[in-house]
């Protein structure tokens, strides 16, 4: 039985428990990545949905049921400290997407909710009133908040300018979202409208203060510089994903319900996450399979995109992953958003090392 003690300096990958096995096609570790440890988190974190490093030996975990928890990894078992409760006087908080910087915390849920607070006094969160319809992902760089999703204007028009990603500087007190990326479909952002709740897009700030946007519902991988200027675009073809997301009205009604939505996702490869990779970045691509999903790491380094298998396999058919990097360490959280019947599977965490 694998100890819950998190060991960061092992020389070789650990033998994983059967419930969280190494992928057969990556048992020795994917090129550039080494499996360090596999951890089953406390059952109270069964609703875990996102993860961020918080210093060298701690993680922040976002859950819909338990709010945002801080895990101190220096202890066995890891110690949990609640940072943000899942509800407030202003209504329910459902933090299923998480972002953190040294000064700020932010979270979002897929439908009409984003909130942020200074790290000091994190009980006082400002909940967005920006007409957000869906929130695909969030990230923070110092006091800059990056949002991917869709919104309605004051007249309830859906994405009237086609914007699907925004920056919001938190420190200067402004509440004006600054659009930085627009749908390829133009006003109305039809692909995002059709698949806004599917959680197949991702954003992430990079080491140089720039950021990357993967809409997911439509083609392209986009890198912006620190000033929000488009620096480079890649095709999603090398990732093997199908970014077309257009549905009939009947299909859209059907996919409002979880079983149909998960079935749609499980028929195609999708991007689960984007993470910093040195001065560049990597996308984590989820591929469905007969015996459970598998994941690949697509590393974007200059002109080169290298794709390799990640060393894990999960039996739950609807499992997804979220991840974060700190230096050469990757924390990869396996989540199951489908809430299957019976006792929920224990949330699991893989600790990986980038090998250069």
Description:
The chain has 356 residues and is mainly beta. Helix content is 6%, strand content 43%. It contains 3 helices and 26 strands. The strands form 7 sheets. It has a 4-stranded antiparallel beta sheet, with no helix packed on it. A 4-stranded antiparallel beta sheet has the order 2-3-4-5, with no helix packed on it. Strands 8-9-10-11 form a 4-stranded antiparallel beta sheet, with no helix packed on it. It is globular, with a radius of gyration of 19 Å. Mean pLDDT is 81; it is low at 1-30.
Explain the layout of strands and helices.
Blueprint: E1 33-40, E2 48-53, E3 58-63, E4 67-72, E5 79-84, E6 87-88, E7 91-92, E8 97-100, E9 104-109, E10 113-118, E11 126-127, E12 132-141, E13 144-151, E14 163-169, E15 178-182, H1 190-195, E16 202-205, E17 211-214, E18 221-224, E19 230-234, H2 249-254, H3 258-265, E20 270-277, E21 280-287, E22 294-301, E23 304-309, E24 320-326, E25 329-335, E26 348-354
